[in-house]
Design brief:
Aspartate Aminotransferase, domain 2; 33% helix; seven-stranded mixed β-sheet; alpha/beta; 13 strands; 2 domains; binds pyridoxal-5'-phosphate
């Protein structure tokens, strides 16, 4: 029996579950060069401060903002926490709440707990936010409405324009969590960014599909003034110089390939909308795959979950499917 936990830490050969991937060679090189710099101290580290501005500009271009405000954070968790913090601090209520679909990432639970904000979660339909269900939870104390653009478990996109309208009507901020999806969505027809709807803040992680080295998250805002309500300076972290889009298309391609392979073997497959597929594989089958060294994970409802990041190649999936056939 092959022990998955003995694999090299950065051996992606059988990793089907991760939302991180092999860093782009240029990103790796840049991370090494800038290892000891601190963008939180722009006076001392001028070069990296300039690079951070460039990174924000590039993330903004992907997310439909020509003059973006924002910073490079430690990841989607920090960006989501900061977005909730902006919404809480600018609102005039003692009992703030944030409304999100049940599919929202657990970082919003951390944000709610840390910030003393009530998190209200609305049921989804086909794993997507349901605008009517979200509307029912909104009241005068709602400070933000959250939409997910590329959900963590099923890779689907919420109806962002409808959610942003609800936020506007409630005088709340609209936050879009595109931590994982942000680098895939430009190749789709989805309405998800600042250019498509009245989005106020948006999370997009270079260290997921952007092929940057960990840690590199991104928080973008429609205007610099949204950051005014943060009482202390944002904790600027190391930024990587290169933000590439390479691999995204081929990721989508391999996702379709694996969905077809699973469906043709009689499994109930969900997706892919973005390069993420789930299928109803049995527990013994999943255990067998794990014994064979595949790093696979399950959704909360028990489906097998495969994330087709750039390190997931066609030949890797062929060998995965061959193992399915063996079972
Ligand atoms: C991964 C993920 C996060 C959290 O990002 P980290 O970088 O792991 O902190 C937040 N939201 C979504 C949708 C994610 O997929």
């Amino acid at each position: 029996m092959q022990q998955a936990q003995w694999a090299e830490p950065q051996d992606f050969d059988r990793v089907l579950t991760s939302m991180c991937t092999e860093p782009h060679p240029r990103a790796r090189e840049a991370a090494e060069r800038f290892l000891a710099t601190n963008p939180g101290d722009p006076g001392t580290y001028e070069a990296v401060a300039g690079l951070e501005a460039e990174a924000v500009e590039k993330l903004g271009a992907i997310a439909g903002l020509s003059e973006p405000a924002g910073y490079v954070s430690s990841g989607g968790t920090e960006s989501n926490i900061q977005a909730v913090r902006i919404a809480r601090n600018r609102a005039d209520t003692d009992e703030p709440n944030v409304v999100a679909p049940t599919s929202a990432h657990f970082s919003f639970r951390k944000a709610a707990e840390l910030l003393g904000v009530e998190l209200r979660t609305a049921p989804t339909v086909d794993h997507r936010a349901d605008a009517d269900a979200v509307a029912e939870l909104i009241d005068d104390d709602t400070v933000a409405v959250v939409g997910v653009a590329g959900s963590t478990e099923y890779g689907v996109v919420d109806p962002i324009p409808a959610l942003s309208e609800l936020a506007t009507d409630a005088g709340a901020l609209c936050h879009v969590d595109a931590a994982w999806g942000g680098f895939y969505l430009p190749f789709t027809d989805h309405d998800w960014h600042f250019g498509h709807a009245d989005v106020d803040t948006l999370t997009i992680d270079p260290h997921k599909a952007g092929r940057a080295a960990v840690p590199a998250g991104g928080l973008l805002a429609r205007s610099e003034s949204l950051f005014d309500d943060l009482a202390v300076d944002t904790p600027y972290l190391e930024s990587t110089a290169q933000i590439t889009l390479t691999g995204t298309r081929s990721g989508a391609g391999v996702a379709s390939a694996v969905a077809d392979a699973l469906a043709s073997r009689g499994h109930d497959v969900f997706g892919p909308e973005l390069p993420l597929v789930t299928a109803d594989l049995s527990v013994p089958m999943t255990d067998e795959l794990r014994d064979r060294g595949w790093r696979v994970s399950k959704t909360g409802s028990g489906e097998l979950r495969i994330v087709c990041m750039p390190h997931v190649t066609r030949s890797m999936l062929r060998s995965f499917v061959a193992d399915l056939d063996w079972y």
